[in-house]
Amino acid sequence: KESSANYSMSGEVGNSVDGNAKSANYQVNEGLNFTLNSNVPPAPTLSNGSGTYYNKIGITLATGNNPSDTKFVIAVSPDAFVTTTKYVQADDTLGTNPVFQSNTVWGASGFTIIGLIPGTTYSVKVSAMQGDFSQSAFGPVASIATANPTLSFSLSPNSVDIGTLTPASVVTAPSTVTVNVDTNGTGGAVIYVYDTNAGLLSPSTSSNISSATGDLSVLVEGYGIRGSSVTQSSGGPMQILSPYDGGSTNIGVLSATKRPLFDTSNGPVTSGQATFEIKAKASNTTKAGVDYADTVTLITSATF
Known about the structure:
Elements: E1 2-3, E2 8-9, E3 20-22, E4 27-29, H1 32-36, E5 45-47, E6 56-60, E7 71-77, E8 86-88, E9 94-95, E10 101-102, H2 103-106, E11 111-114, E12 121-129, E13 142-145, E14 151-156, E15 170-172, E16 177-183, E17 189-195, E18 199-202, E19 207-210, E20 214-215, E21 222-231, E22 234-235, E23 239-240, E24 250-251, E25 259-263, E26 269-281, E27 296-302
Antiparallel strand pairs: 1-2, 3-4, 5-6, 6-11, 7-8, 7-10, 7-12, 8-9, 12-13, 14-16, 15-26, 16-26, 17-25, 17-27, 18-19, 20-24, 21-26, 22-26, 23-25
C-alpha cells in the first residue's frame, strides 16, 4: 500500500486474473475488488397488505450486516428487469435516477413504495454502498403483485313492510335493513341514501306523511330512518353519520337529495356492515289508507 498525505493506493498479488470464478448459480468473489465492495443485501421483505394494496407495496430492507452508515439504492421493475428498471426516489415514488439513502432514512421498520400500477407484479432488488468501499452488486430479487381496486356493496332485505301506523304512536318497521360493503380504496367508501316521495305517500288519498329530521316522540307526525349498528372485520371503522345517528326515536330526513348515511372513516374496510331502521308516526288527522309507501335508494362510492 502506497500513500501520501492526501492519497493512497491499495493493491495485492496472487489472485486469479479476472478475480471472478462463477457459474450460473454460484460465484467465488476473490481479489481486491471484492474486498472493497459493500456486502450484497439480501432480498427485501415485501407486502401488499394481504392482497389489498393496489397502488403501493410495503418494503423492509435487509442490510446484509453492512455498517450503519451504509447507503442503499432500491431498483424496481414491472417486467422482472427485462426491459424496465426504475429506482425508488426520496419521496417513495419511482424515477429513472438511482437514489442512495441509509436504511434509517428509508425507514428501518419499513416504508411504502407509492404510485404503482394496479394488478401488476413488481420485482425489487437492493444494492449497498458505504464509505471508501465500492457499490455492491444488486442482491436477489423479491416479487409481489399489487391488487386491483375493489368495491362491493349489497343490502338486504329489498323490501320492508312497516306495518300498521297507529295515530300519535312511533312505529318501527319489524325488519332492519343491512348494508354490506368492502373496499380497498385508500379513501374508503361512503353510502348515500335518497328516496322518491320525501315521505310515505298514499296515492289513493293523496296524503303524504312527510319525512323529517327530529325526535318522533316530539313531532306530530313524520317518517325517516335511523342508523342502528355498524361493524367490520378490519379497517374502517364503519360509522353512522348525522342526522341518522340519533337516539331510539330519532330519525333522519329522506328526500330526492343524496345524503351520506354511513362511511368507512376515510379508509379501506373488510366485511363492513351497517344496519338502519325505518320509523314513522301518523298524526290524529292523517288520512287512513292501505297504500302508504316510499322507495328508498342506497348507493355507494369509493375513493381510490
